[in-house]
Amino acid sequence: xxxxxxxxxxxxxxxxxxxxxxxxxxxxxxxxxxxxxxxxxxxxxxxxxxxxxxxxxxxxxxxxxxxxxxxxxxxxxxxxxxxxxxxxxxxxxxxxxxxxxxxxxxxxxxxxxxxxxxxxxxxxxxxxxxxxxxxxxxxxxxxxxxxxxxxxxxxxxxxxxxxxxxxxxxxxxxxxxxxxxxxxxxxxxxxxxxxxxxxxxxxxxxxxxxxxxxxxxxxxxxxxxxxxxxxxxxxxxxxxxxxxxxxxxxxxxxxxxxxxxxxxxxxxxxxxxxxxxxxxxxxxxxxxxxxxxxxxxxxxxxxxxxxxxxxxxxxxxxxxxxxxxxxxxxxxxxxxxxxxxxxxxxxxxxxxxxxxxxxxxxxxxx
Length: 366
Ligand code: NAD
Hints:
By secondary structure, the protein is of the alpha/beta class. The chain has helices spanning about 15-30, 40-50, 55-65, 80-90, 135-150, 165-180, 200-210, 225-235, 245-260, 295-310, 310-330, 350-360; strands spanning about 5-10, 30-35, 65-70, 95-100, 115-120, 130, 160, 185-190, 220-225, 240-245, 270, 275. Strands 2-1-3-12-11-4-5-10-8-9 form a ten-stranded mixed beta sheet, sandwiched between helices.
C-alpha cells in the first residue's frame, strides 16, 4: 500500500473541530497517511507576524497535497490575506467546488449534481486596487482619460480586472480534463461578454477555442445573470460550469444553497502539481469551540483528496459512509435538522463517530 505524506492545516475558529473530524474519518478508511501538521491563521500571527508563514507554504510545496481548515482573515495592515498568499504563492489556479445533493438533506431541490470550476488567480480578485483620492489613483484617472477618452470621477476608488489568454486557457483545459476524468459530459463557460468585451469577451473566445480540443465533451456558454436564474429554476440542466473568480465566488454560495448549505460544500484548490483541499465555508467564529459545526464539507473535501491521490476506493467508501449518515438523519448537526434548535442535533465529533461506524461496516475492495 502506498504511503502518502500530506500537509494538514487545522485552521482556526471551527477549523480545529471540523479538521479533526475529517482527519479521523480519512484515517478510518485505512489509507496510509503521514500527517505533516502545520499551524496557520490567527493563532500564529503573533509568533510569525502573518497568518500563512513561509514554512507552511514550504511544507505544501514539498508534500504537494494539503488539506486545510478554514482560516479567519485578520483585519489589519501588513498582514497577508491567507487565501491570496496560498493561491498566489502556489499558483493554485483552479478551484473545484462540487455541489451534490445527498438523499436526506432538507433542501428546496433534489438530484442536484453540479461542479463549479472557478479561475482562482485573476479577475477583480487579483488585488490590483487604487484607493480614492490617492496620488496614484488620480494619475491613473488622468492616464485612462488620455488613453481611453473616458473620464472617471475624481472621487473614485478603482479595482482592476485582468483576464489573460494564458490563465483562461489553462483553467478551461483543466476543467475539460477534470470533466473527462470524472465522467462528466458538459462544460458551460459563464461570462458577461456582452458588456465586458475585452475581459469576459476574451474569456469566452478562449473557452470556445479550448473546447475544440475536447470534441467528446459538450460545450455551451451562459451569461452570468442568466446562469444565476437558470441555476435556481433548473439546476439539473448543468454539469461542469467554468467561471472567472468573482462570479465563481458568488455562484459557489448559490450552489451550496441548492444542496443544503455551506456545511456540505467541499472544494479543491488545484495547480499543475499541487492541490489544497478545503471546505467552501469560513471559520464561523461564533461557533468555535462549541462542537456544533457541521464537519461534512471538510470530510467531503477529504473524499476529493483521496480520489486525487489515487485512493479512489477509499474516497468512494468515505463518500458512501457520509451519504448513509445523512440519509439516516440521526447523527447530523443542527444545520441539517428541521429546525435550528432541534434537541436531537449531534456535535461535530459525534458526526465523525457515526461516519466511522459506517466505514467499518463497509467492505474494503481487495
Ligand atoms: P462562514 O462560512 O465562516 O460562516 C457563515 C455562517 O455560515 C456561519 O455563521 C454559520 O451560520 C454557517 N456555517 C458556516 N460553516 C458552517 C459549518 N461547518 N457548520 C454549520 N454552519 C456553518 O463565513 P463568514 O462569517 O463570512 O467568515 C468568517 C471568517 O472566515 C472570515 O474571517 C472569513 O474571511 C473567513 N473565511 C475563510 C475561508 C477559508 O479559509 N477558505 C473561507 C470563507 C471565509
